[in-house]
Every structure is written in structure tokens, then in C-alpha cells.
Design brief:
This is Immunoglobulin domain-containing protein. It comes from Oryzias latipes (Japanese rice fish). InterPro entries: Ig-like_dom_sf, Ig-like_fold, Ig_sub, Ig_V-set. By secondary structure, the protein is mainly beta. It has a single domain, classed as Immunoglobulins (Immunoglobulin-like). The protein is built from no helices and nine strands. The strands form two sheets. It has a five-stranded mixed β-sheet with strand order 1-9-8-3-4, with no helix packed on it. The chain has a four-stranded antiparallel β-sheet with strand order 2-7-6-5, with no helix packed on it.
């Protein structure tokens, strides 16, 4: 049975960008949480790009901005600047809390060379 952390479900958004471009993706999360994480693939050691209790944080080319909407809805805007081919892959936004299961949202970035081709864009950016 595959590891649940490696699964991509039907609602995983896919974004296609060219090398050198910036991207901002909105993660929709249920409930709120004090610790915010941005990870590549899984939120395990070595894959964590941002791990903070602040509502805004930046680490190199990666930044996040958290907004609490209401009891069962929060958003985490993720920005990655100057995309490279190595930025392609699965990302996870996660809110960690002590009193209930963690909230997470996954997305995929595909970084291409050259001109943007709408034929290769599988999902419209939010």
C-alpha cells in the first residue's frame, strides 16, 4: 500500500510555469493552526522549506502568508520566486495544532523551459 504522504488526489491543483517566473499558490486549509509548514513532497526532515509560528515568513526564494478566515477555514499563500526546473514537484502546505488532526493542502508545480504552452497546463491557477 502506498504511503499516504506520497499520494496525489483528484483535487490536487497543478500549475505550470516557465523557468525564471514567480508563482503564488493559495492553499485552502480547514481550521487554524499555530505552526505553519511549507514542504516539498512530505513534511519530513530535509523536505521542510518553511516551519514557523509567524503569520508571515520568508526563507530564500520561498515565502508564506497566513490568513485566518473563520473557524473552519484558513488560507496560506505560498510564493516561490525565480523558479528553476528543480522546483518542479509536489508541495504541501500544512497547519499543525495540538487539539485536532493537522490540516493540509497539496499542489504540484511543473517548471518548463521556454515559452508557456497553454496546451500543457492541466489546471487553471487560482
Amino acid at each position: 500500500m502506498p504511503d499516504r504522504d506520497s499520494l496525489v488526489d483528484a483535487e490536487t491543483n497543478i500549475y505550470t510555469k516557465r523557468e525564471g517566473e514567480d508563482i503564488t499558490v493559495r492553499c485552502n486549509l480547514t481550521f487554524s493552526g499555530s505552526r505553519k509548514l511549507l514542504c516539498k513532497e512530505t513534511c519530513e526532515k530535509g523536505n521542510i522549506l518553511i516551519n514557523t509560528t509567524s503569520n508571515e515568513d520568508q526563507r530564500g526564494r520561498y515565502s508564506i502568508k497566513y490568513e485566518y478566515r473563520y473557524i473552519q477555514s484558513s488560507i496560506l499563500d505560498v510564493t516561490i520566486t525565480k523558479l528553476t526546473k528543480s522546483d518542479s514537484g509536489l508541495y504541501r502546505c500544512e497547519l499543525q495544532k495540538d487539539w485536532s488532526p493537522d490540516s493540509e493542502d497539496n499542489f504540484i508545480i511543473i517548471v518548463t523551459k521556454g515559452e508557456f504552452d497553454p496546451q500543457n497546463h492541466e489546471n487553471i491557477s487560482q
